[in-house]
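Q: Structure tokens for this one, please.
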Amino acid sequence: MKLVRNEILHRQSNILIEFNHTEGWLYVNWRGYQNYDTVVAGCEKILELLLESNCTKVLNDNTNVEGIWSGASKWVGQDWLPRMQAAGLECFAWVYSPSAFSRLSADKTLNCTEDQSFIQTFDDIEAASDWLRAC
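A: Here is the predicted structure, written as tokens:
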């Protein structure tokens, strides 16, 4: 049996974006403290790679995010997520951070998002993966 590894598409200290060939989705691992600039830069890179890979699913993992990044919540919810959907995104599985402040930032983003029909939040990566597979 051949082990298929995720293909690393982009790596910085605060974000790792991989294409999971087995599952057919982008896996985004956000890490550490985020701010408006790091969130915007990371999100724009995700959009670019979504278009390049012709992908329709994203596993957005905030497990390793620390602290608050709510300064970017409105931009993510009102600007970026609608553009992701327009680019072909059909399913966005969002794994919450254990950090209460990061979780509040994610919830604030969702409150700013008009169409949430393609977004589901999770407390663990296994449940998020199961939902994406069925999506």
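A few notes: The helical segments are 36-53, 73-86, 100-111, 125-134. DSSP finds four helices and six strands in the chain.
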